[in-house]
Amino acid sequence: MKQSVRNPFVANSLILGIESSCDETAAALVRGGREILSSAVHSQAAIHAQWGGVVPEVAGRSHLQKIMPVIDQALLDAQVTLEDVDAIAVTTKPGLIGSLLIGVSAAKALAWVRGVPLLDIHHIEAHVYAATMEHEIGVYPCLALVVSGGHTALYRAESPLEMKVLATTRDDAAGEAFDKVAHILGLGYPGGPRVSKLAVDGDAQAFDFPRFRSKDGTPGFSFSGLKTAVLYQVRGQDARAPTPAPEDIPRRADVAASFEAAVVDVLIDETLRAAAREGLTTVLVAGGVACNSRLRREMALRADEVGVRALFPSPAYCTDNAVMIAGLGYEALAAGRTADLTLDAASR
Ligand code: KG4
Ligand code: ZN
């Protein structure tokens, strides 16, 4: 359906961002790609906790209930109305298809009603953009490490909208490894923040857990061997033995700290090696695991030692949010990359 769209691009465009790819329903208003006016997030963590992970069907239903209230909240917090919005940016991929479609449908309906451009946003590119929003401009070209529950990969980024994959994980994502180890340690879901909190009281050198490095030196990550090592440490040689009660797990904090140190070491080693290979001196670290304080601290230190600058988003913009969607939406609008009402969602 053809529709006349007003207002192609102005320097301080106000963008409404919408995110619903996994278990957060989020909306945000950002002006000029940087000025954050509001960020509303409804987390489904409590809903999924009873299942120990995200249940797609349950996620979709919750997004449907929350999408309009969350958008209204973001508009209210920013003290603007839909009339003030110049374009609508929405995550279309990757993610849970039923969840993505709810955000995409809402964005299309609002863009149609208002006659404003629709912007097609890639969730991973948006995570990376989040690391640039609170810093000065001029970070490109750079290396980007994305560490979330669903992804662990290194990219070479020429600009906010041009990223090339350099390395990925061969098995689990880093966040997934945190979530699985949290389960082994009886910490519940979501695991990353709980493992990290327990690790504060532990000795990171107590256990020498394996750090993956490919035999032929090709770049990439792997966390399944590490997870298995933690499992054997906690349950003994019989991995099928029943999970001990959390209070019966010996040296739980030491296990958490040693596991966290192993993940962080692998992420930093691989990232700094890739930066050297690519001749890049700026590293952007993004995604939920970028909240991890050990990763933030150690990456900053070790990058500095080799003349590399490491930039992280504030913790609130590491996990899923719509600020990053509206921010990258501004770049898409500036580049003339607008979408029409045939816009669709894709799981990958
Ligand atoms: O980016 P995100 O919100 O969702 C995805 O797109 O996957 O990332 C969520 C992941 C979860 O696996 C969670 O356990 C992990 O990020 N995470 C952390 C921390 N906070 C969140 N992992 C380690 N330390 C943390 N502080
Ligand atoms: Zn994410």
Describe the structure.
This protein is of the alpha/beta class and 348 residues long. It folds into two domains: 14-130 and 319-334, Nucleotidyltransferase, domain 5; 142-312, 2-Layer Sandwich (Nucleotidyltransferase, domain 5). 41% of the residues lie in helices and 18% in strands. The strands form two sheets. The chain has a five-stranded mixed sheet with strand order 3-2-1-4-5, with helices on both faces. A five-stranded mixed sheet has the order 8-7-6-9-10, with helices on both faces. Helix 5 (174-184) packs antiparallel against helix 8 and helix 6 packs across helix 8 (252-278). The radius of gyration is 21 Å and the shape is globular. The site of 5'-O-[(R)-(carboxyoxy)(hydroxy)phosphoryl]adenosine has 20 residues, from helix 5 and helix 6.
Key structural traits:
2 domains, Nucleotidyltransferase, domain 5, globular, 41% helix, single chain, alpha/beta, five-stranded mixed β-sheet, binds zinc ion, 348 residues, binds 5'-O-[(R)-(carboxyoxy)(hydroxy)phosphoryl]adenosine
Strand content: 15-25%
- CATH architecture name of the largest domain: 2-Layer Sandwich
Bound molecules: 5'-O-[(R)-(carboxyoxy)(hydroxy)phosphoryl]adenosine, zinc ion
Distance between the termini: 26 Å
Helix content: 40-55%
| Count of distinct structural domains | 2
Remind me, CATH topology of the largest domain? Answer: Nucleotidyltransferase, domain 5
User: If strands are numbered along the chain, what order do they take across the biggest sheet?
Assistant: 3-2-1-4-5
Number of strand segments: 10
